[in-house]
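Researcher: I've been going back and forth with a colleague about how Putative adenylyltransferase/sulfurtransferase MoeZ might be arranged in three dimensions. Neither of us has a model we trust, so I'd like an independent prediction. The organism is Bythopirellula polymerisocia, in case that matters for your notes. Sequence below.
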Amino acid sequence: MATLPPEISCAELQSLRESGSDHLLVDCREADEHALVALPGATLLPMSQLVERVSEIEGHKQSHLVVYCHLGVRSQRVSQFLREQGFTKVQSLAGGIDGWAEAIDPQMVRY
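Model: Here is an independent structure prediction for Putative adenylyltransferase/sulfurtransferase MoeZ. You can compare it with whatever you and your colleague have in mind.
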């Protein structure tokens, strides 16, 4: 099985979502950030609670996971942690939700 690149671009994620391909979108920002703006269908799993709550996504170890944050830094760290926990298909959204707002959905709230 080919290894996925560590990051996925906003355009690639948009294609993935439009194709209906099975994937789990994980928002690793904090709850107040998620309340401000979020991608539809995202599971909120803040980086600050990841160690305690990783079991909530345990059933998705073989699933394609796309992790995002504000700018793409936290999601890289979370993606690496998840790979270390045995999640095999994890990618970080390059540019985070801010990049998504810039490239895909300019109507989206930016902060």
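Researcher: What would you highlight for our discussion?
Model: I'd start with this: The first strand starts at residue 7 and ends at 8. After that, consider the following. The CA atoms of residues 26 and 67 lie 5 Å apart.
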